[in-house]
């Protein structure tokens, strides 16, 4: 299973990533700052997508073959709704076929 973690360079996301690796899942990351991520974990990611802003998602690239999405943006009021809908919008734009699991923290 390939999991995309949106906001992967945040505080909680390192725990999500380690947990996914422990369960033998493949992980892609979407974040603004790859340099904030521990190099030992960053090297294990299938891919790291750099986003300039929270809403800047390259849907075609980030959604390719993804089985699950975890949206773990910082809990700021301006991100509550939009941050939760961005992965769903990207999925719709990509016209993802099959079943997709979305988790929002």
User: What is the number of E strands?
Assistant: 5
Main beta sheet, described? Answer: 5 strands, parallel
Binned, the helix content reads 25-40%
Beta content? 15-25%
Detailed description of the structure:
The two termini are 20 Å apart. This protein has 105 residues and is α/β, with parallel strands linked by helices. The protein has a 5-stranded parallel sheet, with helices on both faces. The protein is globular. It has one domain (2-104): NAD(P)-binding Rossmann-like Domain (Rossmann fold). The model has no long low-confidence stretch (mean pLDDT 75). It has 4 helices and 5 strands.
SSE layout and pairings?
Blueprint: E1 2-6, H1 13-22, E2 26-31, H2 39-42, E3 47-50, H3 59-62, E4 68-71, H4 77-94, E5 101-104
Parallel strand pairs: 1-2, 1-4, 2-3, 4-5
